[in-house]
Structure formats: structure tokens, C-alpha cells
TrEMBL record:
The keyword Ribonucleoprotein does not apply. It catalyses: GTP + H2O = GDP + phosphate + H(+). This is small monomeric GTPase. The keyword GTP-binding applies. SMART domains: ARF, RAB, RAN, RAS, RHO. Its cofactor is Mg(2+). Its EC number is 3.6.5.2. It comes from Oncorhynchus kisutch (Coho salmon). It is an enzyme of class 3 (hydrolase).
Length: 255
């Protein structure tokens, strides 16, 4: 399989119709503004329509678009920063404006899988911006905050929105974030599990602060997307929740 080069740099442009950075292919991080260039195929793979302008040596085999959604303050940006940079954004909370993205290339079963991760603004006033990007998302990570009951209660409304705007076969995973905050917790893990079961969505708790399950949440969706796009005829169906449970068990996670 031929290898494509992952973009690097800042402020790549994007198209609201594809949701994929376009024009300036330098962007490993970027803000959505405007531009033309990349093509998203129906199978979710992204093929840059022009060579990378960057000096990046990071090549990839397949690429997918993953979107982070959920109420403002649940920790979407922190989860992404933890995954990308291994750091936690402590201190004052800076709410995302509009939409933002970062790229990360992961090794999944000897394949280089590029995730283009879109960090949406949870604030209501940016909802129409988010709507424009749903249709190109291959996977969605839907977050609530275990210390914020309203963010949990709003999950049903988010699922309705996802049903209305996202692709029918979008890979979806529910994440109860801030699992480290045991003193402030108001949503039990069992409540999250019950809700996820009710809607047939894979689920786990995460912490952008401690790093709990952050890598696993992105690896799990990357695995699912990769299995879907490379599936051999007789291969058994990949089960995301089973994968997550197995990985947590082998990591000795009591969560
Ligand atoms: N204790 C704890 N705090 C967290 C965690 N993740 C995020 N926070 C804090 O929660 C606040 C909001 O985090 P953000 O990542 O900015 O929230 P967001 O979902 O991106 O919010 P919007 O951009 O407004 O949609 C910040 O003060 C973070 O420091 C976590 O896992 N544990
Ligand atoms: Mg944010």
C-alpha cells in the first residue's frame, strides 16, 4: 500500500463541506476557515490531493476524521491535548471558539492510521458550526463530565443531534470524563454504563488529567475504523466494547 504524508504545522484551512483541512496542507493543528484541496472518499479515507508542503516525515496509510462533541467544559480540548501532547491543560478554562483540529498518526496492526481530530465548541452558540462538520465524521467521541449532572442529562439530546446530522454508520463512543475527580463526582459509572447500554453505544470513563483511558479511547475508534475499511470477507466483526474491555482488563484497570 502506498504511503501518504501527514500534514504538519499550524493554521491549515478547511472546508466545511468536507471538514478536512484543505489548501495549506501544513496543518497538524488548525482552525477551520476556508480552502480547497483534499478529497474524502466514501469509505472515509482521506487522500490529500496535493503533496504535503511540510518537512514532516510522518507518512500514513489511511486516514479518518474523528470529532469530539459534548457540553462546554466536559474536557474535549483537554482530552485531545492529553492524547496529542501527553499534557494536561490545568488552570483557567478557555472555551473553544468555533472548531479546531489536530492530527495524530497511530500504529494500528502495522498500519499507519492518521486521525484528524476535530475539537468542537460545546457552547450552544456554536452549534450550527458543529452541525456542518458532522456529516464527514467517521467517528464521534461523545463526552460528559462525571462531576456535572447536566452534561450527563444532555447526552440524550446529543444523541438526537448525532442521529440528525451524522452519518448513519458513524462510529460512536460515550466517554465519562474527569474520572479522577472522585470528590466532585455526581454521575456514577453504572449510570454511564446503563445509558450506553440503553442506546447501544460503547462506553468508558476517561481522565484528561490523569491520562486514564485517553489513548485507549482513540485507539479503539481507530481499530474499529481500520477494521471496517480493511475488512476481509470472512473476518469476524470487530466489537469495540469487547476490545475496550479486554484492553482495560489486560492493563489491570479496576475502572
Ligand atoms: N479534574 C479534571 N479536570 C478536567 C479534565 N478534563 C478537563 N478538565 C478541566 O475542565 C475544564 C474544561 O476543559 P476543556 O477541555 O476546555 O472543556 P471543553 O469540553 O473543551 O469545553 P468547550 O471548549 O467550551 O466546549 C478545564 O478547566 C480543564 O482543566 C479531567 O479529566 N479532570
Ligand atoms: Mg474546548
Amino acid at each position: 500500500m502506498s504511503r501518504k504524508k501527514a500534514g504538519k504545522g499550524k493554521n491549515a484551512n478547511s472546508s466545511p463541506t468536507t471538514g478536512i483541512p484543505t489548501g495549506n496542507q501544513k496543518g497538524e493543528t488548525g482552525k477551520s476557515t476556508a480552502g480547497t484541496g483534499s478529497v474524502v472518499q466514501a469509505n472515509g479515507m482521506v487522500h490529500p490531493s496535493r503533496p504535503s508542503l511540510s518537512n514532516s516525515s510522518e507518512f500514513y496509510d489511511i486516514a479518518f476524521k474523528v470529532m469530539l462533541v459534548g457540553d462546554s467544559g466536559v474536557g474535549k480540548t483537554c482530552l485531545l491535548v492529553r492524547f496529542k501532547d501527553g499534557a494536561f491543560l490545568a488552570g483557567s478554562f478557555i472555551s473553544t471558539v468555533g472548531i479546531d483540529f489536530r492530527n495524530k498518526v497511530m500504529n494500528i496492526d502495522r498500519l499507519k492510521v492518521k486521525l484528524q481530530i476535530w475539537d468542537t465548541a460545546g457552547q450552544e452558540r456554536f452549534r450550527s458550526v458543529t452541525h456542518a462538520y458532522y456529516r464527514d465524521a467517521n467517528a464521534l467521541l461523545l463526552l460528559y463530565d462525571v462531576t456535572n449532572r447536566t452534561s450527563f442529562d444532555n447526552i440524550k439530546a446529543w444523541l438526537t443531534e448525532i442521529h440528525d446530522y451524522a452519518q448513519q454508520d458513524v462510529v460512536l463512543m460515550l466517554l465519562g470524563n474527569k474520572a479522577d475527580a472522585t470528590q466532585q463526582r455526581v454521575v456514577k459509572r453504572e449510570d454511564g454504563e446503563r445509558l450506553a447500554k440503553e442506546f447501544g453505544v460503547p462506553y468508558m470513563e476517561t481522565s484528561a488529567k490523569s491520562g486514564l483511558n485517553v489513548e485507549l479511547s482513540f485507539t479503539a475508534v481507530a481499530q474499529e475504523l481500520k477494521h471496517r475499511s480493511m475488512k476481509e470477507p470472512n473476518e469476524p466483526k470487530f466489537k469495540l466494547q469487547d476490545y475496550v474491555n479486554k484492553e482495560m482488563k489486560s492493563a489491570g484497570c479496576a475502572c
